[in-house]
Amino acid sequence: MKQPDSSTTTPLPSGTSSRRQFLRSSAFAGIGVSTLGLSGLRAAPANSKLRVLSIGVIGTIGGTDRKAVASHPMAEIVGLCDVDSNQLARAAKDHPDAFTCADYREAFAKHADKFDAVIVSVPDHSHAPIMLTALGHDKHVYGQKPLVHQLAEIGMMERAVAAKPHLVTQLGDQRMALPGRRAAVEILRAGTLGKAIESYNWTGSPNPGKYFNYEKVFTEPQTPPANLDWNLWQGPVAEAPYRGLLAPVKWRSWWDYGTNGLGDWGCHILDVLMFGFDELKDPFSVKTDCKEPASEHFHVTPCKSTIMYNVASDKFTDKTFPVHYWDAGQVPSPDQLRIGEQINGGNRTAIICEKGTLVLEGDGKLEIWRDGKMTPGLSEPGLPPFPRLNHWHAWVDNCLGIKTELRSPFKDAVRIT
Predict the structure, then answer these.
(1) Which residue in 137, 132, 120 sits closest to 157, CA to CA?
(2) Do residues 82 and 99 touch, judged by C-beta distance below 8 A?
(3) Helices in 95-220 by DSSP H: which ranges?
(4) Residues 6+ apart with CB under 8 A from 248
(5) Rounded distance, CA 378 to CA 380, Å?
(6) Are 94 and 82 in contact (CB under 8 A)?
(7) Residue whose C-alpha is closest to residue 56's, from 99, 102, 113, 19
(8) At CA 330, angle to CA 327 and CA 333, rounded to 5?
(9) Which residues contact 380 (CB under 8 A, 6 or more apart)?
(10) How far apart are CA 191 and CA 378, in angstroms?
(11) What is the pLDDT of residues 228-272, one digit of tens each?
(12) Residue 172 burial by CB count (10 A; 0-12/13-18/19+): exposed, middle or buried?
């Protein structure tokens, strides 16, 4: 694919375009524009509204993100972009003065002077191309989880963020705003429970429902619905025919488009570990046990994984630290967790330490187990107050130069991912 100059829109991907080529062209398009100093680009000045482009306006989470950001009194949705014309029309009713387009590259090529920040709420496979383009155009970015779809994209994102330290980024990790989750980080960092031994993390995702092709049904190719631009939806993935039970919402189970339950819930249970222990950087091994091999098209479920980290620190009992990650509703036993009763279901993080076990639910309920007895985590002595924190508004505030608590910027999201 030809590398575009700063005045052209990146060509649409073709069946022969590789993911790497598409990422390079998307990223270079943005970097070229910002390097040349396109007139009209600006950081949002103090006392003015943050002008926001919403990409993926409804989908699985886009509507929630867009409306939450728009509810900030100093934010305004000025642009809407979606490959589904029906969803675009629905969102336009909420923002009648916003410009609209189907291709995000058109938004940057034609309207870059009209917005300061971007919400990226699209399927996993398109996260990196869009976010890299936005950063290259000097736009603040709110990006949905998981941060990227491919491991190679983590390095691209890390370098892009490092090159733009003035930009405010935020992962769609909204549960980190809950008091119980923030308290868990404080307890881990303070070493209240002594040295850490290991961690168990489990989730009910993937599960039967609207987000997953749980039965792994591979339907026959068919004509895409008239409202869906299938070429644009595929983005950086090699051209393939449209199939039912894929778009618009059941893409998470597919290798090419989603990241299964790990991408769906991983950040919401692994984030506390990353915030609590700076030593957890790159794992040196990952072992996964599954009931069957993965198929050509679909992720395999259920799985049990153990991720091993080197930890040269007195915060841990050993030089290595195991993080166990179980999906699809698999739950460790009380003996494994060293607690007094069986926990069933849910999405939880458990950190086993010398003096007790911290158990944290995805939605913020925090428990501390010592000698088989439980006490509420928020009653632990020495914790600071945790004032109400609006995850989306915190991003807007920081974009406007108002320094408030921000969870989780991309520099942290890289480690979580």
Answers:
(1) 132
(2) no
(3) 104-111, 127-136, 151-163, 179-190
(4) 59, 84, 87, 228
(5) 5
(6) no
(7) 102
(8) 135
(9) 183, 187, 192, 368
(10) 15
(11) 999 999 999 999 999 988 888 889 999 999 999 999 999 999 999
(12) buried
40 conformational bin, left if phi > 0, alpha if psi -120 to 50, beta if neither: left
Residue 185: CB atoms within 10 A of its CB come to 19
Phi and psi torsions of 131, nearest 5°: -65, -40
Sign of CA dihedral 259, 264, 265, 268: positive
Q: What is the DSSP code string of 328-339?
A: TT----HHHHT-
pTM over 0.85: yes
Out of 97-111, 131-145, 212-226, 248-262, pick the least confident: 212-226
pLDDT in tens, 71-90: 999 999 999 999 999 999 99
- Could you give the percent of the chain with pLDDT greater than 70? 88
Please name the amino acid found at residue 305: S
b/e burial code for range 55-67 (CB count within 10 A of at least 16 → b) = bbbbbbbbbebbe
With tokens 């990146």, the residue in question is 10
SS3 78: strand
The count of C-alpha atoms lying within 13 angstroms of the C-alpha of 46, restricted to the half-sphere facing its C-beta, is: 3
- The dihedral of CA 147, 150, 151, 155: what is its sign? negative
The residues, ordered by sequence, that sit 6+ positions from 47 with a Cβ below 8 Å of its Cβ are: none
What single letter denotes the amino acid at residue 219? T
**Do the beta carbons of residue 90 and residue 62 sit within 8 Å?**
no
Q: What is the DSSP string of 337-392?
A: HT-SS---SS-EEEEEETTEEEEEETTS-EEEEETTEEEEGGG-TTPPP-----HH
Return d(Cα 301, Cα 205) in angstroms, integer. 9
Residue 314's CB: how many other CB atoms inside 10 A? 8
Count of C-beta atoms within a 10 Å radius of residue 330: 13
